[in-house]
Amino acid sequence: MVANNSVSMAGVINECKKQQIEELKEEVREELKKASAVKSPELLKLIDSIRLLGVAYHFEREIEEALKDMFETYSRLVDDNKDLTTSSVWFRLLRKEGYDFIWFLTKLLKAFRWDASCIDQLPADYLKWFYRALLDVYEGMEEEMAKEGKYFRVPYAKEAMKRQIHAYFAEAKWLSQGSAPTFEEYLSKALVSSNHTLLIATSFVGMEDVVTEEAFQWVLGRSKMIRALELILKTWLPTRYFEQSRVHVPSSVECYMKQYGVTKQEAYDEFNKQVDNAWKDINQECLIPTQVPMPVIIGALYFTSMEDIVYKDADEYTHVGKLMKDLIALMLVDPVPI
């Protein structure tokens, strides 16, 4: 009799537990539904907690639908909240669910505030390492320039880096979403992502006293000459073949062909005209009186000369061949005959 009562009691307890579990599951579903309906960032934290507790298998359908819906509105969420923690959680959830997260990495880098305390909020060790290394470079600049009384130069270099990251973010977003920008939209970002302004501004940090604030404003203001230098690099035709051979945002050629309904050769012909006009602008900017001292102009021109060598006949930067090896040997290894 006692045994039967014990079995009966155990059955009642099990049924109560099952009922409680079902009630809790329904409560969680309601919370997911509410947070999903208003596109709240709290939804990310809720899903993350469910995953960490090991009970996500009870809510796979709800989680999948919520993430799919929020994937399309992520940009607005991050822009509204400007919260790296939210971005980090979102990154991890997307990666686990198999979503394309390339542009989210750039979003995280774009959001940094030149603050070492942000490092722990990054979602991957290699990003933390990269961010720390980046901060170290600019901290080193600040220390050296402060000693020389040229600290004013460093903020301009930082601004150039920020613009670079913004341009990368736009391109990564196009790639992630599979969208094709207009030619003008593409060019507005591609000219910046060419690295030209970043490299020139960074090189100016360590130059002689001839580099003034006006020189940095000339670069970051993207004067006619700087824009021409960027255009020459970004429309250099052999590099387009390389970009089109890998997973990449549509190239300048593809964007131009699609927008204007022309053939590839017609696009090339137009780009050749643009490059010719760019060289005319550069030559005009070199005529006295110049906007900035001639050493500043020559310093900017050196980068284009280098790019002419590196990219003219092939992509020697990505695929280093005999040409680059011989040039490096001539410059650094072989003695100059006297």
Order of helices and strands: HHHHHHHHHHHHHHHHH
Note the total helix count.
17
What distance separates the N and C termini?
Answer: 113 Å
Q: What is the beta-strand fraction?
A: under 5%
Question: Percent helix among the residues?
Answer: over 70%
Overall pLDDT, averaged?
79
Kindly provide the radius of gyration, computed on alpha-carbon positions and rounded to a whole number of angstroms.
28 Å
Large-scale geometry: elongated
Major sheet, described briefly? none
Show unreliable segments: 77-82, 237-241
- Judged by helices, strands and strand pairing, the structural class is mainly alpha
What descriptive keywords fit this protein?
single chain; 338 residues; mainly alpha; elongated
Model description:
- The longest helix has 36 residues, at 2-37.
- The protein is mainly α and 338 residues long.
- The protein has helices spanning 2-37, 42-53, 60-71, 74-81, 84-97, 102-110, 125-147, 153-177, 183-193, 196-205, 213-220, 224-234, 237-244, 252-260, 264-285, 294-311, 322-333.
- The protein starts with a helix and ends in a 5-residue tail after the last helix.
- Mean pLDDT is 79; it is low at 77-82 and 237-241.
- It is built from 17 helices and no strands.
- The relative contact order is 0.06.
- Helix content is 73%, strand content 0%.
